Structures are given as structure tokens and as C-alpha cells.
Amino acid sequence: MSDTEESQGAPPHVASEFFLWLWYQSETGQGRVELGSDAGTVEYWVDDRISFRAVGEEKVSAIMTGDNPSLTPEAHAALAGGKVIRDVRLALRKEDREYSVTLKAPRIEIAGAKLPALVKSGDEGEVLYERMFLYEELHFILGGLFRAFATARCDEAWRERTLPDLRRWVAAGPASGAGLDAGEEAS
Amino acid sequence: MGVLKGGLSVRRYRAETPPEGFRDTYINALEENQFREPLTEVHKEQRVGWTQVHNLLDTSFLDTNKWLYNQYAVFGLRIDKKVLPAKLFQAHLQKRCEGWCQANGRERCPSKVKGELKEALELEMLLKTLPRVAVYEVAWNLNEGWVIFHNQSEVPNDTFRKLFHRTFGMVLIPHDPLDFVADRLDYIDELVGSGASDLRMEAS
Q1: How close A166 comes to chain B (CA, Å)?
Q2: Residue contacts between A and B (CB atoms, under 8 Å)
Q3: Does residue A182 lie in a domain region?
Q4: Is B113 exposed, middle or buried (0-12, 13-18, 19+ CB in 10 A)?
Q5: Inside any domain, residue A113
Q6: Is A175 part of a structural domain of the chain?
Q7: What would the pLDDT profile of A32-84 be if each residue is shown by its tens digit?
């Protein structure tokens, strides 16, 4: 098997910036994405874990766990100190289905995913079909979130408005919503 | 933990869709690459092969009801390796060398003798040692061409990809975040080319 059959893939900063954008969006009250006309809406928020790494390194250098880790001064201090997000645990809700999942950089891999159990009992096939459906839905949701991020990240407004907002938000500390003018939405 | 119950921690791959009449071909391929116990108990090299997900001792794939659920093929990768406890091995070897020196009235154990003692001890201890056994679940959506492997470490994933290739003749391509925007080359260029955003406040 040759490695040349694979593309280079996304550079490490892509996943970290995606996680940061999710965090920023959820903390500034916009943790909600339309997945398309048929697919509905998904709400998301940072659950109970964020870990950070130094730029250029793979090892975790700081972890925040417990209730609302994203609202701690330590989490913002890690960003302000130049660290980037290595993994983040998200809660996601689509209709009445709630997922909890850790996303790991750089591949944005699904780890420790808790799927909503709809079938309480049943034969093995039934359980498998349900879990595969839920896994696929989770993958689909992540795709929708990443597309929303990519749209924002590749827009001219990223440099002109979103990035300065992000900087102010990082510098201002938790739950500040800093940088957003009243009624204005981050792009 | 895995495909049928518990938390899900997976690496996702893209695979080709199977050829016409794949059932018989894949039954044979899985049978050929099923996990097989080593012929001797002193086998210390790693052994790999496919098992059913229900029980790692079930390695037959002749009954498709046990592993093929409509569009999903579900099976396990078993990896066995016998590993001797290094400190205990060294301690025993030292004792044996000391014993040899005492029996032969020598101060030092020649390296050739030490090598023979080491080999004999290794065989002896391998006979008494059970292998370290790991099983990782695999779910393959044959219609949509994706595979999930229930582990995210590089070594088991490499082993999995090699055995998958040997079994089905397919190269698995790991999922990449950019696959989510595969239809937007402009996004891919920008995400890859623009570099990391600098979050530090600019001096005003």
C-alpha cells in the first residue's frame, strides 16, 4: 500500500480553528446551524472538556474538564497564551436526539461518542441499523458544522470582522460576547 | 464498547464499492484471512486475522447471517502477541547465568552460553505465557463505501489497513476534514493555503 495514494490532508490548524469557531459561536449565543432544507437545524455547545496544545506540538499541554470548561478564565488564558485546541467535547441536538462527542484534531475524529438509544431492546440487527443510522447522522452533522465553518473562514469577512471579534473575545475572557456589536452576528 | 454498544471511538475510511457477486468472494476472502491460532505455543510474533464481533473465538464467515446485515459488513480484527515480562525474564536469566558459573567454576558466563540460556528460558516462558489479545470492531457500509474502525491509534490502524488490503484488494483512504467540502476546491485552497489565524491582539 502506498502513501502516495492519499492526499496531504488538512493541515493541523484547520481542526483547531474549527473547534475554536464552534466554541466562539456557542459562547456568543450562536450555537445553531442550518444543515440544509431537508436536514433541519442542529444546536451545539461545548460540553465538559477542552484540551489545548502548543503550536507545532501534538501533546496536550492543558486540559479543562467539568461543568462549562469553556467558561473558565483558564480556558481563555490558554488561547490568549497562544495555545490551540487539540480536542473538544461537544453536545449536539438535532430534533429530539442529543449526542455527546469528543472531536479530536487533526482529523476531527469521533471519540467517546454517546449516541441517543432509541431502540431499547431488539435483535442485534435492529440495534446495529439504529447505531449506524445515528453514527451517520452524527457524521452528517459534523459535516454540516464544518461546511458552515469553512464558509465563514473563507469569506472576506473572516479577516475584516470575524478575526478581530475573535481576538477581542479571547482577550476579554469568558462569557463576554466581546467584539459583537449589539444585534450583530459574527460571520 | 463499539459498533453494537457503548461509546463510539472510530477512524473512518473511504472504500470502493464491492464488485458484483461479492458475497461469495468476500466469504472466501474472510475465511482465508480469518484469525488462526499459532501452530506452536512458543510463537512470539504478532498474529492477526478476522473474527466475528460476537465472540473472538468464532472465526468462520461461512454463515453470512453472522456478519452481513443488509448493507453492513461487521467483523473484528484480532491481534495477538506474546510478550514476556522483561524484568522477570532478566531476573531469571541472571539466576541461570549465576547457576552456570557456579556449576562450572567460572567467574563470568561467556556470551555464547548466555545466548543459549536466554533462548532456552525464552521458550520455557513463552510456553507459560498467554498472548496479549486485542480485538477491534469494523463496520463497512458496502453501499456507500465507508468503513469505520473502532480504534484511533496508528499501529492498529496500519495493521487493519494492510489486512483489509490483503483480504479485499482495496486501499482504504482515511477520512479527512477537507472531505466535508470536497465539492468546494476554493474552500480547500483557502483552508490549506491561508495558514493559521493569529489570535493575538494587534498593537494599536
Answers
A1: 7
A2: 126
A3: no
A4: middle
A5: yes
A6: no
A7: 888 776 778 999 999 999 999 988 888 888 898 988 888 888 888 888 888 99
